[in-house]
Amino acid sequence: MKYADVILPLPLENSYTYSIPMDMEKALTPGCRVIVHFGKKRYYTAIVMSIHERKPDPSFETKEIYAVLDAAVPVLRRPQLRFWQWIASYYLCKLGDVYKAALPFGLKLESETAVSRIDDFEAEERLRPAEQSVLDAFQNASKLTVSELEKKTGLRNVVPIVTSLMSKGAVEVSEEMKRGYVPKTQTYIRLTEAYHNEEKLHEAFDMLKRAKKQELLLISYLDLSRALNPMLSRELSKKELLEHAGNTPNVLDSLLKRGILEAYEKEVGRLQMQICRLQPLLPLSSAQEKAYNEIHDTFKTHDVCLLHGVTSSGKTEIYIHLIDEVLKMGRQVLYLLPEIAITTQITERLAKQFGDRLLVYHSKFSDNERVEVWNKLLHTNEPMLILGVRSSLFLPFKDLGLIIVDEEHENTYKQQDPAPRYHARNAAIVLAGMHGAKTLLGSATPSIDSYFNATIGKYGLVELTTRYGECLMPEIISVDIKELKRKKIMKDTLFSPLLVERMNQALSQGEQVILFQNRRGFAPMVECKSCGWIPRCVNCDVSLTYHKAHGQLVCHYCGYSVSLPKQCPECKEGEIKMLGFGTEKVEEEIASLFPATVKADRLDFDTARTRTAYERIIADFEKGKTQILIGTQMLSKGLDFGNVSVVGILNADSLMNFPDFRAHERAFQLMIQVSGRAGRRDKRGTVILQTSQPEHPLIRMVQQFAYKEMVSLQLSERSMFHYPPYYRLIVLILRSRNEVALREMSILYAGKLRLRLGDRVLGPVTPPVTRVQTLHIKKIVLKIETAAAIAPVREILEHIYAEMQEQPAFRQLLVHYDVDPA
Ligand code: ADP
Ligand code: ZN
Ligand code: ZN
Questions:
Q1: Does residue 195 lie in a domain region?
Q2: Which residue lies with its CA nearest to atom 9 of ligand 1?
Q3: Which ligand neighbours the alpha carbon of 283 most closely?
């Protein structure tokens, strides 16, 4: 008897053992999807991890695998499973968590998956009785879960049936309203069987003598499709035919009715790129050439190279040259970018060089598109370039030669929720290692962690200190807003006179302006003028942000919202006062400062909820339809605008005063990145940096682009206080509705940990926000020497976790780990 260890999409165990029925033995290989029964009446799509003959513990009933989904080609390539195992073990989570994050939704189904019938579905072939009865079950319901379908049909397991109905386009599945994978089809036109010879065609033309338009359309069809010439004929889409023949769908309809032509549906991929002419690579400047050669040399001795190149130094162009080279060697390349940095800008730039070798993998793509990228990679042996966000690390790569992690300092590379809470930059390095590939990290403001690794020789370091085309770095002028407020020069305004002056200058010369404020909404906080009441979220321990457009007070942690009261609900008399300001307020003030001919737009989480909205805002600014772009840190992500001469940082204080050991590093990166949007081509730009602490050392370092000074100051603090990169942080996050249980359990937990790990254990500590979504939070922080192996630590953690589970009150807690929090 053979057994398979499979991964289920559950965070309980790493794997579960099932027996393999004889008739499946041949088809099953590691990496295949199978359907298994688990728990009470639940079926899941599982992944086979390994096959063996070890008999499992006889005290449990071992179930059989129910069905195999991938008979020919496993959905995973072998190195992927190894990568999953690494993620689960390093980031202290279960393989099931990794499985859930890794596979596009359309490739996995479970009992709780909601299935709905597609209304206009018509079967092309007879459905099997089981399929028909599943469809019939939808009579009074538009949506049913897999287990409800089982109840209604009385069938033992409908997962495979749903899978096959899905591939026929009869049903779709949804999670968070997403569609399951449905192939895309397009209508094609052909001659009917009856008219597929010259003689019959003559008859047809005779018939059409009085229908000139139909005659012409038929001629067009024959012309374009060359249907009568078996050597040259090709399939012709309805769209193409109509485009060439004067867009007359009703004329075509008549020909279809006469039975001369017929329409048929054909599956087409969604991935077709605009076919554009490939362009030759741009020659590199001598500085770029030098950096390029240094990267090459570094890769002879190192697997990882950090490219520290100032904004606009032409890093992307260097990447393109490296990609080209690796593709020519027949290997694949993964180009990682933070979520919102993948724009049409970069996609078009790469498509021009690499054409249909380029695949884009983005979380804002539909699940169908993601399944197609997955399948394409699974079935191709071509060298491909994949441009993707962090989840693209999980794609079925064949032979990676290079991973580029652009904007490597971005903290959005770290997944926050749910598990696996992995850091895509660090995971990329591990994945590259598994493929024998190199990793290139690129940034104008490298993370201190990576820079440290480069200075100790773990990574290679290549520097690019000049902008492309002798463009100058911008001039950064700080403005003391505290002083201006004291002198009543900046009374009811967010803009210093200098900023207004520079903006006016720029606009009058037809140049553009970017304004940065890292808070969205109108006012981050409101307060009663007479009694001091501050509205707070009912679910979280935070004050509510006022959003003027909807007249709502909104919680930025859970989305809870209420309308702004006209009057203070506490004292019933006080007026409500706004404190601080967000992008919405900046936009309002711009409208009153400048004439209506000056168009401003806003780029933040509220205005850029969808990919199209985001791209429209950027395209409008690029084309000069808008002159001022106001935004949060979304602005800082690798955008390349040619006409921006002034950047205003409206308030640097809130960036610097954040309670986190990385606050200064991050503030420096953000300010430099935002400044980098100024004066990119032929003119030196200006940055006006408004702050009430102009004498703060960090402000001076930003003004002087003193990256290395910032790093060495931070490093000395971090070494003193046992922070990364000298120590590795592992944070235990404990949450509960029951505040008392949480307090007691976290003290007990920290105590047990301290017994084993000593003063490496800190806490329990109460985070700045003590309650989110009705759950109170405590953290226990572990600081482990970077040189120490992580395996023994993991053992201790698992052991103590098991001990804690013996405490009844512990069941009221949710516990997870965050390794290397960002
Ligand atoms: P970075 O990625 O370092 O911010 P980019 O690669 O976006 O910089 O380059 C900045 C600008 O310089 C872009 O507009 C780009 O088109 C241009 N550029 C860079 N390298 C070259 C080159 N070798 N030839 C022509 N233009 C270049
Ligand atoms: Zn009041
Ligand atoms: Zn809330």
A1: yes
A2: 314
A3: 1
709: CB partners within 8 A, 6+ apart: 701
Q: How far is the CA of 773 from the centre of ligand 3 (A)?
A: 6
Contacts of 374 (CB under 8 A, 6+ apart): 75, 103, 104, 107, 395, 396
Winning range, highest mean pLDDT, from 178-187, 295-304, 334-343, 553-562: 295-304
CATH code of the domain containing 51: 3.40.1440.60
Are 616 and 698 within one domain? yes
**pLDDT range class, residue 625, cuts 50, 70, 90:** very high
Instruction: For residue 41, tell me if it sits in a domain.
Output: yes
Any idea which of 178-182, 428-432, 499-503, 567-571 has the lowest mean pLDDT?
178-182
Q: Is residue 165 predicted with pLDDT exceeding 80?
A: yes
> How many Å lie between the centroid of ligand 3 and the Cα of residue 750?
28
From 289, 290, 313, 316, mutation site for ligand 1 pocket: most ligand atoms within 8 A of C-beta: 316
Section 700-717 average pLDDT:
96
Is 139 found in the same domain as 243?
no
Count of the separate structural domains present in the chain: 7
345 close to ligand 1 (CB < 6 Angstrom): no
Confidence of residue 413 (pLDDT cuts 50, 70, 90): very high
Nearest CA to ligand 1 atom 23: 284
Residue nearest to atom 20 of ligand 1 (CA): 314
Which of 409, 468, 675 to probe ligand 1 with, by most ligand atoms within 8 A of CB? 468
Model confidence pLDDT, tens digit, residues 772-784: 989 999 999 999 9
Contacts of 481 (CB under 8 A, 6+ apart): 490, 496, 651, 690, 691, 692
Contact 698, 669 (CB under 8 A): no
Residues spanned by the domain of 777: 727-819
444 CA closest ligand 1 atom index? 3
Instruction: State the angle between helix axes of 315-328 and 286-301 in degrees (0 to 180), rounded to the nearest 10.
Output: 50
653 lines ligand 1 (CB under 6 A): no
Over range 740-767, report the average pLDDT. 95
* Domain identity same for 495 and 588: yes
Does the predicted TM-score (pTM) go above 0.90?
A: no
Does the beta carbon of 744 lie inside 6 Å of ligand 1?
A: no
Residue 178 confidence (pLDDT)? 32
Q: At a CB cut-off of 8 Å and minimum separation 6, what does 350 contact?
A: 320, 335, 358, 385, 387
Encode burial over 98-118: b for 16+ CB neighbours within 10 A, e otherwise.
Answer: bbbbbbbbbbbbbbebbbbbb
Query: Final residue of a domain: which of 715, 745, 765?
Result: 715
Together in a domain, 589 and 666: yes
